[in-house]
């Protein structure tokens, strides 16, 4: 009977739980919206090119600076992409591929998106300034400005917007190199940055060809939108692919990499030019898609192999064989007390991969090896 007089307001329990669930759902939804504003996949490519610029500077690899340039570049990319969508929110409603973006679909307000972009700008440039150096921060801020206030408005006015966009894409590798060295005045930084610049033309023009109707609906001034036969687009694809294919040879000629980089580039850049030739022969969406898909793996391979074949990646000698020795058990011992864990990993990886390389097997490590292997290449000819 006493229990009958006890009244428990059980409704308060599910309300609290429901509120918590709703809060989590709202947070998840907002996180998804921020990811769309940031164009997360595109931002990942920007970050990768920035990290490549940092690693191209060589060992030892400073973890704190690498982390700072990675995170700072990511925030800068998020800011630029957000401002781009704020500016294009009206034209995005006119295109099928963009009408579901957060702003044209009404899932976030313009002031909210602007606040997010400004927050990313502050965080990005702040992290680059504090964790790297002022030059890297200036480059990051300049790229946000160039992408948001020059490239984006120009898309509605001139076909030259693509060339401005290519400049934007070429800056992140310079940011990475500046973060590692404090300067961008280097042939290797110029080669990598030029690679990003030239790569964007086959990548973007092939994409623009496939969605040219959508671009026309949005009022964008893109070369393929005014190219009925595909002749102009195919010439641009071929021209810039050929220019891109010369960079590994320039890298070797300038003494930045071994000759294996241009040799290997004959395969992946040769295939890119092959797909461009197919598009020239028959300018259709299928061949444009082949060019586009090829560019997606061509650039990561270009960056990786340039770093891998860099001659002076290690601090004191261009050859890893002088810094790494193999014990009788096959384990690798690094003769360096100042190398951090990351540099150690790079040493080990390069040593293992080079041991599997035919070029390395044909290259003597000493005069004695040269006598024992008469068909080996000399050090001078390496």
Describe the structure.
68% of the residues lie in helices and 2% in strands. The protein is mainly alpha-helical and 382 residues long. α3 runs antiparallel to α7. Strands 1-2 form a two-stranded antiparallel ribbon. The radius of gyration is 26 Å and the shape is globular. The longest helix is centred in the N-terminal third of the chain and has 27 residues. It contains 15 helices and 2 strands. A hairpin with a 5-residue loop joins β1 and β2.
In short:
The protein is mainly alpha-helical. It has helices spanning 12-38, 40-56, 63-87, 89-92, 110-131, 134-154, 161-181, 187-210, 212-217, 231-253, 260-281, 285-308, 341-355, 358-361, 367-372; strands spanning 324-326, 332-334.
Task: Fill in the keyword field for this structure.
single chain, 382 residues, mainly alpha, disordered N terminus, disordered C terminus
């Amino acid at each position: 009977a006493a229990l009958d007089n006890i009244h428990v307001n059980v409704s308060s329990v599910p309300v609290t739980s429901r509120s918590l669930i709703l809060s989590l759902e709202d947070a998840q939804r907002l996180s998804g919206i921020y990811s769309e504003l940031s164009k997360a996949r595109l931002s990942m490519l920007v970050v990768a090119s920035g990290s490549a610029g940092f690693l191209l500077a060589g060992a030892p690899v400073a973890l704190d600076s690498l982390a700072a340039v990675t995170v700072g570049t990511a925030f800068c990319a998020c800011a630029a992409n957000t401002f781009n969508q704020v500016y294009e929110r009206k034209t995005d409603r006119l295109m099928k591929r963009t009408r579901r973006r957060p702003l044209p679909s009404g899932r976030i307000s313009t002031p909210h998106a602007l606040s997010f972009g400004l927050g990313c700008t502050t965080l990005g440039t702040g992290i680059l300034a504090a964790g790297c150096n002022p030059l890297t921060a200036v480059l990051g801020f300049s790229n946000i400005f160039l992408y948001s206030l020059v490239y984006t408005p120009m898309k509605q006015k001139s076909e030259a917007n693509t060339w401005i966009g290519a400049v934007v894409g070429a800056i992140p590798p310079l940011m990475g190199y500046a973060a590692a060295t404090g300067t961008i005045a280097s042939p290797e930084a110029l080669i990598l940055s030029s690679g990003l610049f030239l790569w964007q033309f086959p990548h973007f023009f092939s994409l623009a060809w496939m969605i040219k109707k959508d671009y026309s609906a949005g009022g964008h001034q893109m070369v393929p939108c005014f190219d009925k036969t595909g002749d102009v687009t195919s010439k641009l694809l071929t021209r810039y692919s050929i220019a891109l294919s010369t960079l590994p040879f320039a890298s070797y000629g300038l003494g930045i990499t071994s000759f294996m980089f241009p040799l290997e580039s004959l395969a992946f850049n040769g295939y890119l030019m092959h797909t461009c030739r197919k598009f020239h022969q028959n300018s259709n969406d299928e061949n444009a898609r082949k060019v586009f898909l090829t560019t997606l793996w061509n650039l990561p391979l270009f960056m990786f192999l340039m770093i891998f074949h860099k001659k002076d990646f290690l601090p004191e000698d261009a050859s890893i064989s002088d810094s790494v020795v193999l014990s009788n058990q096959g384990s690798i011992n690094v003769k360096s007390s100042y190398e951090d864990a990351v540099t150690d990993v790079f040493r080990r990886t390069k040593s293992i991969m080079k041991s599997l390389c035919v070029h390395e097997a044909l290259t003597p490590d000493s005069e004695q090896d040269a006598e024992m292997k008469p068909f080996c290449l000399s050090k001078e000819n390496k």
